[in-house]
Amino acid sequence: MHPSYEMLRPGKKFPHVWCPGCGHGIVQGAIIRAVQKLGWSRDEMVMVSGIGCSSRMPVYVDFNSLHTAHGRAIAFATGVKLHNPKLHVIVITGDGDALAIGGNHFIHACRRNADLTVILMNNNIYGMTGGQYSPTTPIGKRASTAPYGTAERDFDPCALAQAAGAAFTARGVAYNALELEKLIETALTKKGFSLVEAISPCPTLYGRLNKEGSAVKMLQWQKANTINIKAAEKLPMDQVSGKIVTGIFHDVETIPYTEIYDRIIRKAQGK
């Protein structure tokens, strides 16, 4: 039996709803393997999600889980962590869920340095609701709500999180599952707000609307257009432009929100 099997709900919730060729299953596998490497039990974990393709994940993973309202996963997760700081709280979210409807929660959780690990599965589109453009749809790319191409510039989630105060930011791609697994493992051990942006192909909507080809071609494109940050730093900007840069971008030791909040409680209690 595959070692990941024991952390799934095979008898209850499978087959899953993700489309053929979707990268979200690869990300899920990387998360499970990272947790297994750390030796954490399911009872030590809580997985919280909002709404969207990515946010179906807690349904399939046999952790303690919360499937919450659209854009509110980080707010729910912060409450869970404050109630029991010993729990490892993972937020599963997408580009629309985290950066549009949940954008304010995302920014302020970074500012507070909430002790959470956020896995932001970025497929550049609202996949579950018909292919509307999201805050990470690149300018000029097509969506069901932008049939002639978007006119808005896209967010860089890692840069946004770092600027807002996150302790750790990193990016990986579905094609390189091993690197993604290592980034998630590192993020899970960090104190404070850690973000891993996982670039995940959506061949059904984003790929079809933008004529990206099959799911295999989209993964091959990732392979050909991804460069690690250490290699990128040695190259001139024109050779890095247009590439997906992966790796750890920001990693600092800071006091997480839960510890500061606990100090305030003790002070208020006269301890």
Automatic annotation (TrEMBL):
Domain Thiamine pyrophosphate enzyme TPP-binding, chain residue ranges per copy: 51-197
A Gene Ontology BP annotation from the UniProt entry: cellular respiration
Entries under CDD domains matching the protein: TPP_OGFOR (cd03375)
Gene3D superfamilies in the record: 3.40.50.970
UniProt GO MF annotations: oxidoreductase activity, acting on the aldehyde or oxo group of donors, iron-sulfur protein as acceptor; thiamine pyrophosphate binding
Domain of life: Bacteria
Record keywords: Oxidoreductase
Record-linked Pfam families: TPP_enzyme_C (PF02775)
InterPro entries with a match to the protein in the record: 2-oxoacid:Fd_oxidoreductase, THDP-binding, TPP_enzyme_TPP-bd
PANTHER family found in the cross-reference section: 2-OXOGLUTARATE OXIDOREDUCTASE SUBUNIT KORB-RELATED, 2-OXOGLUTARATE SYNTHASE SUBUNIT KORB
The protein's name: 2-oxoacid:ferredoxin oxidoreductase subunit beta
Protein source organism: Candidatus Edwardsbacteria bacterium GWF2_54_11
